[in-house]
Amino acid sequence: MTWIKNTLLMLLLGLLAFGSIQKRFGIIGSKSLNGVFPVTEIPVFSCSTWMAGAYQDQFRASLEDSIGFKQDLVRLYNQVDYSFFSVPHASKIVAGKNGYLFADMYINGYLGNDFVGKPFINDKIEALKFLQDYLWIDRGILVLVVFTPAKGYYYPEYIPDRFLKKRNDLTNYGYYLQRCREAGINYIDFNQWFLDLKDTSQNMLYPKTGIHWSSYGAYLCGDSLRRYLEVRLNRELPHMITDSIEIVKEARDEDDDIARTMNLIWEIPHPLMTYPKFHFTYDSVQAKPAALFVGDSFYWQWYNNGVIENTFRNKEFWYYNTDVYPDHFSATKNVGQIDYVESILKQNVIILLQANGGYGELGYGWIDMAYHYFYPGKSRTKEIEQQMLTNPQWMEQIAAKAKERNFSTEHMMLVDAVYTMNQELRNQGLEQHK
Question: What is the pTM of this model?
Answer without folding.
Answer: 0.87
